[in-house]
Write a sequence for this structure.
């Protein structure tokens, strides 16, 4: 059907152009499945990307492919309870966060409104610069962090209201809107999924 064609074209545009994507629609319409498939249709990583992806995987103890040609783009889907440190990096010893582990692949933020405001605010500078910075008293670490960010939420939003800073039908999110707005400004494509 026409709606399905538009949906698939939107996914392809996100993959080919590297555009961040927000999918809107009720539960059970295939948003998670589409996000999972997206990493498989991204263009293959070039040598530089493959080396970065393999190096990051090796740094966290993951088994790296024997050759760069075998490197696959990662797919990461952190839980909405993930902290700032879990998303951007931190801990003791300092470890890369999900945005770095997804570098060169897809970072899927399912149930976007459920993520904490601080966590979302910490993502904005990383999404803008493509680098994750973690600073401690005597240590500063910078990791590459340039994934395709795909977010999904069950609410169908009235964008006329969003422009005014109000989300129709969801007053509990109004206070949270500021952080949401930070992420939405970095999203280039919006897809409303009614069914799949």
């Amino acid at each position: 059907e026409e709606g399905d064609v538009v949906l698939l074209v939107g996914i392809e545009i996100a993959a080919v152009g590297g555009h961040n994507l927000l999918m809107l629609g009720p539960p059970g319409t295939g948003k998670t499945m589409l996000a999972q498939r997206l990493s498989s249709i991204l263009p293959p990583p070039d040598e530089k990307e493959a080396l970065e992806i393999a190096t990051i995987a090796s740094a966290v103890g993951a088994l790296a492919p024997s050759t760069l040609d075998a490197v696959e783009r990662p797919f990461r889907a952190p839980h909405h309870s993930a902290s700032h440190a879990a998303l951007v990096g931190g801990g003791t010893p300092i470890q890369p966060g999900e945005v770095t582990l997804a570098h060169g692949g897809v970072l899927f933020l399912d149930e976007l409104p459920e993520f904490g405001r601080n966590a979302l605010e910490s993502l904005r500078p990383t999404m803008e610069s493509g680098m994750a910075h973690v600073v401690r008293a005597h240590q500063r670490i910078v990791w590459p962090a340039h994934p395709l960010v795909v977010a999904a939420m069950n609410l169908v939003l009235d964008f006329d209201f969003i422009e005014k800073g109000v989300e129709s039908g969801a007053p509990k999110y109004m206070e949270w809107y500021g952080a949401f707005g930070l992420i939405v400004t970095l999203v280039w494509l919006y897809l409303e999924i009614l069914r799949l």
The first helix runs from residue 2 to 17.
